[in-house]
Amino acid sequence: MSEQPGNNPNDGSDLGRAGQERLEGSIAPPQLGNNFIVDPTVLDSLPIPGTELITAFNYGMSLWGRTAKLVCRLPTGGHINYFLKVTAFDEVGKVMTEGEFESLKEMHVTSPVFVPKPFAWGRYGRSQPETYFLLAEFRNVGEQPPDPVKFTARLAELHRTSRSPTGKFGFHTTTCHAFLTQITDCWDESWSRLFQRQLAHMVFMDQERNGKWQDFQAVCDLTLENVVPRLLEPLQSEGRSIKPCLIHGDLWDENTATDMDTGEPFVFDAGSMYAHNEYEIGNWRAPRHRLSDQSYIRNYKRNFPISEPEEEWDARNLLYSLRYDLATFIHYPRSNLRQSVFDGMTELCRTYFPDELRQAQQDLRIPMLRQPSVNKDGSRDVG
Question: In this structure, are residues 146 and 260 in contact, taking their beta carbons and an 8 Å threshold?
Answer without folding.
Answer: no
